[in-house]
Amino acid sequence: NRASAPEMEDDEDAEERACVLAEAAALKKLATDYMHPEVGVTATDGAAFGRNYFNRASAPGTEETDEAEERALVLAEAAALKKSAMDYMHPEVGVTTTDA
To answer: Which among 15, 17, 78, 92 is least surrounded, fewest beta carbons within 10 Å?
Structure first.
């Protein structure tokens, strides 16, 4: 209890101080990672390198049978419209009959 003695820290205050210092160290590491992207990321977990080829975002979607039929019908109609437009825009080509 002398006046020149250093103050003692409570257990509660020591835990809070350790928590604050840990958070500050984590924040410093994040800031360093952000400021130096050339360093790169290191991963040691083997699961981080696995790929799921069935449910990945870049996998092509599967098409239902009726959707495929509708798609084929729309493409056939578009081809017929394109042929009609070409016939209209180029009358010099002429008309050919298929009857012999």
So the answer is: 92
**What's the CA angle centered on 78, arms 73 and 82, to 5 degrees?**
150
Q: DSSP code of 59?
A: S
More confident residue, 46 or 35: 35
CA 96 – CA 86 distance, rounded (Å): 14
Rg of the chain on CA atoms, in Å: 36
Give the global pTM: 0.37
Give which of 87, 80, 77 is closest to 96, Cα–Cα: 87
CB distance 93 to 87 below 8 Å: yes
